[in-house]
Amino acid sequence: MTTLASELEAFLAEFSMRIPPDVRDVMLEGDNHLRDSGVEERALKPGASAPDFALENQDGDLVRLQERLREGPVILSFYRGGWCPYCNLELRAWRRERDALKNAGASLIAISPQAPDATRETALKNDLGFDVVSDAGSRIAGLYGVAFELPESLRKLYTRFGHALPAINGSDDWRLPMPATFVIARTGAIVLAHASVDYRQRLEPSIAIDA
């Protein structure tokens, strides 16, 4: 059985073989900077009330968390953007779990700071079939405690590889969310929270669905 963890590990192994040493050093520096910032500790924990929001999805429809909770539990998946291969692997893993989500009476909302056009492209490219919404400036990610500013060294690297965030996100900032998953009960309480400064690690969808 294919798992998200095995797919992420396979991609990382292949990527690590072709990454130049100077790029590896900058990425490691960025990892350490984020870890030392304490952002992981600021992420909302189980028992907290999930902040409400209303964001536009890939079809231009407004998705409001409180309205969705009236229908059943909601899983929020914060991802960096369609330019991130690890995020695409995670989104496609969620696509494989659409039936399990339905059987659990839950729904999924994937959130990134991408501009609406980029969000639409991500949803179409991956044939997702669930709500993918645009969080301009990572405002909602900030309410959930998972937003951070990309350090200067990584800004240069991202631009070098064609991932200048202001252009992709249609903003003037370099904010991103940590990859994070929140399972929210119909009461609005967070019952499971997973956020990691290591964007190569993601929560297995089946664990969120079990919760």
What would your notes on this structure say?
This protein is an alpha/beta fold and 211 residues long. The protein has eleven helices and nine strands. It has helices at residues 4-18, 21-37, 39-42, 65-69, 85-96, 98-103, 116-125, 139-143, 152-160, 165-169, 205-210; strands spanning 54-56, 62-64, 74-78, 107-112, 131-134, 147-149, 175-177, 180-184, 190-195. A five-stranded mixed sheet has the order 5-4-3-8-9. A two-stranded antiparallel ribbon has the order 1-2. A two-stranded antiparallel ribbon has the order 6-7. A hairpin with a 5-residue loop joins strand 8 and strand 9. Helix 1 (4-18) packs antiparallel against helix 5 (85-96). The longest helix is centred in the N-terminal third of the chain and has 17 residues, at 21-37. The protein is globular, with a radius of gyration of 16 Å. The two termini are 21 Å apart. The mean pLDDT is 92.
Quick structural summary:
The protein is 45% helix and 18% strand. It is built from 11 helices and 9 strands.
Draw up the topology in text.
Layout: H1 4-18, H2 21-37, H3 39-42, E1 54-56, E2 62-64, H4 65-69, E3 74-78, H5 85-96, H6 98-103, E4 107-112, H7 116-125, E5 131-134, H8 139-143, E6 147-149, H9 152-160, H10 165-169, E7 175-177, E8 180-184, E9 190-195, H11 205-210
Parallel strand pairs: 3-4, 4-5
Antiparallel strand pairs: 1-2, 3-8, 6-7, 8-9
